[in-house]
Structures are given as structure tokens and as C-alpha cells.
Amino acid sequence: MPISKEPATRTLAIRIPRPLEQLSKDELERKQHIGKVTTRTLRTLTEKFASRGFEWTLPVIFAKSTDPLWPDPGASIETRIETEIYGETVRTTLSMIIHKIVACSLLHPKFFTLSPNVRIEKRERRATGWHAYEFTQLDFEARNTESKDIRRIVEDILRGLLEDLKKNSREELTYFNRYKSLDAPSSPFKVYDREDLEAKYGKQWETQLPSAIKEPTWVTNIPREFYDYEDFDTRKWDNYDLFLPRYGEVLSGARREYEHGKITAKMERDGVKKENYELLLTLAKEGRVKPSAGAGIGVERLVSWIVGAEHIGEVQLFPKIPGVVYEL
Ligand code: ATP
Ligand code: ASP
Ligand code: MG
Hints:
The protein has 328 residues and is of the alpha+beta class. The chain is built from nine helices and 13 strands. It has one domain (20-315): Bira Bifunctional Protein, Domain 2 (BirA Bifunctional Protein, domain 2, 2-Layer Sandwich), CATH 3.30.930.10.
């Protein structure tokens, strides 16, 4: 989550998606087409990661440690869910970043998971059309890998996905009027440094960029949480977000910090509670945290872009829209 961010993209009067039982026949038909695109997308993405040697692991929901989603002056979280089980305080997954770093260091050199994230976004974010309060990341991590290699993997997989959809989901893409317009550029995609975007658009670059780009575009060097690698000499961050035209951020990732001294210094600087990250800190102190890099793709955001949805809730079977709680 980048610092100094405003609610992304399309803040026009947006129609709030209704639950299944209230949809008309035509709307149900549209939802069925979205279901077909989602199936093909997940099938292709998982197959592509698995065939590149990434193990497919199952997600976790409760843990003592989760993503701090901090520091962030524009903090988007209205409530952080903590509960007690067996006398211990646990949190619902904000992202599986801590688990990814630990699992990648101790067990799987390459793996991915489809991870449900619960983020009770501020209710005004219903109007961005780009935020849900439950969503899924295809979250992956690779040991001893550089940022540019992760970006290449994402580019290849995204291009492969679009090629596959054009071949195998022609009917659906035509239905959504996306058959002709859906394209990814050849590698490497364009890369912008966040500082250059700030110089051009000001602090609100994130809301301006989607309408300024015509194709998926990388942004690097974004101040974020302690786990993204920061060069303490140059103050540059070795991380990357992928932005989609018209919509906004669909992926965040980075090379990771693994040295105990740096992680501790950043936690202290950012006011992150070290007691919530005891295991990570112990492993780092023992030299058992390995250098890695990875990223998380917002699955619903990706599908929204593919089908040209107006609101992310449209591509969710049961919409989880900030400030709107349906029975299912
Ligand atoms: P944003 O700036 O758009 O609020 P973020 O930077 O806070 O997003 P990250 O913490 O980087 O999000 O999460 C990783 C990915 O998860 C994002 O790139 C996005 O694709 C997806 N994601 C994050 N928040 C949401 C949300 N509320 N609804 C749907 N997808 C989300
Ligand atoms: N999944 C992201 C990453 O790999 C972390 C996040 O969700 O913010 O960097
Ligand atoms: Mg992000």
C-alpha cells in the first residue's frame, strides 16, 4: 500500500452493484459471463505459475502476524479485525506478506497462493469502484530473485493470459465488447519512477495515472511498509506496482528486506509494533530470512479490467462493497 494515496480512479457517481437475488434476467446473464471469464482467468494464471515451478499453497485466515498496512497517512482501513482464540489475539489476513517471506525462506523457493484478504476499507471507498472489503490476491514469492525478474514473469503471464482469453473466451470478450480492445504490450512494459510522476502530477499521481496511460504500466520506488526493500543510502525503494489504463493499481510487489537491523530500524521509524512480528524478527536475527521478491495480483481487479466492469462488486459473486453489507 503506497503512502499518501487518495481513493483511486473513477470517483464519478457510480452504480453500486446489487446482490444476486435482486438482479434482473439480463444482469444474471452478465454475471454468468463474468463467471466464465473468472474461471478461465484463474485456470490460466494458476496453470502458468505452477508450470513455472511455483508450488500452489492454500491460504491462511487467522494469525498473530499480518500485514501492518502502515505507514499510510491516507490509511484506508476503518476497522482492523482482531479476535481472541484459545486465549491468543489473532488478526484476519490483511495480506499474506509475512507468511510469504517466512515460507519462501524456510520451505518453498517459489510458491503462490490465492489468498482472501479482509480489509474493512473506509466506507467512502465504495465510490472508487475499485475497492472491496473482501478480495483475493494471487500472491507469489520467489527466493533470490530480483525485481526485474518478477516484473518479467508478470508481463509474460499477463500477455499469456490475454492471448488465452482471446483464443478460448472469444464469446465472452465479444459480449463485454472487449475482444478488440484488450491487449498487453510486449515486454518490457513501460516503467515510471514514482518521483517523476510526483513531479508531473503532484502527490495525487495515483489518481491521474490511469487516465494518462494506454497500456499496463509499472511504477517503481514507492514508499511502503517495512518489508519492501529500501536503499538507506539513496532512499530509493526497490518495489513496483502495476497500473491498468482507466482503472488503477492491480498489483503491488517488491524485493524484500531480510536483515534484522534494517527491519527493526524501519519498524521503529514507522511506529510498527515489533511485538506483532516476533517470529519474523527472530528468524531474521538468526539469519534464516532469505532474500526474496514477489507480488500480489488483485484477482477481482484484474477480472474487472478484463470485462470492463464499472464497479469491482460486479465481478464478485457476493459483492463486498465498502459500507454496504448484504446478507450473503
Ligand atoms: P489501493 O492503493 O488501490 O488502495 P493498496 O496499495 O492498498 O491498493 P496493496 O496493499 O498493495 O493495495 O494490496 C495488493 C493488491 O491487492 C493491490 O495491488 C490490489 O490489486 C489488491 N487490493 C488491495 N486492496 C484492495 C481492495 N480493497 N479491493 C480489491 N483489491 C484490492
Ligand atoms: N501482496 C503484496 C506484496 O507481495 C503485499 C500487499 O498486499 O500489500 O508485496
Ligand atoms: Mg499497493
